[in-house]
Design brief:
Layout lengths: L10 E9 L4 E8 L5 E7 L6 E3 L5 E3 L2 H11 L7 H18 L3 E3 H15 L1 H11 L5 H13 L1
Parallel strand pairs: 4-6
Antiparallel strand pairs: 1-2, 2-3, 4-5
Helix pairs in contact: 1-2, 1-4, 2-3, 3-4, 4-5
Length: 150
């Protein structure tokens, strides 16, 4: 495993333990060159469907892209990294269970908004404002009114 500090290719595992119900293994590693420690996570590579974008492109599902988008929506909100990881885990499980080879990005966006709605309504509105590309304040207000009705 490449050291994130010095780039050396060799490291040794100093601690290994299951995480998240056994689906992920957390490993503490030590670089054999600079002796700094870092953490890696090992998970089974699962076959996820391709994501169909609005413009017709297809790309592989990118967990880090989803986490990044959720983190931006949750910035300065009381949402933990663990909450974001759990939301992303549920999204991946849902994608696997849907059994489809391709899933529209719009459906994934809706699933993310549902997750955010249950966790933090401000983060939900932030994500929705970018995801739905509100053109003006009126569209934004309609979304807020819908949120208040729920």
């Amino acid at each position: 495993m490449k050291c994130p500090f010095c780039g050396h290719q060799d490291s040794k595992v100093v601690d290994s333990r299951p995480d998240k119900g056994g689906a992920v293994i957390r490993r503490r590693r030590e670089c054999e060159e600079c002796a700094k420690r870092f953490t890696t996570y090992e998970r089974v590579e699962e076959m996820l469907p391709l994501v169909c974008k609005k413009d017709g492109r297809r790309e592989h599902f990118d967990r880090m892209k989803v986490i990044s988008g959720i983190k931006k929506a949750c910035e300065k909100r009381p949402v933990s990294v663990e909450d974001i990881e759990r939301m992303t885990d549920r999204l991946e499980t849902r994608l696997q269970e849907c059994g489809e080879r391709e899933v529209p990005a719009s459906r994934i966006g809706e699933w993310i908004m549902n997750e955010l709605h249950a966790v933090d309504q401000v983060a939900y509105v932030r994500f929705a404002s970018v995801y739905r590309s509100f053109k003006d304040i009126n569209e934004f207000m309609v979304e807020l009114q819908d949120l208040l009705k729920k």
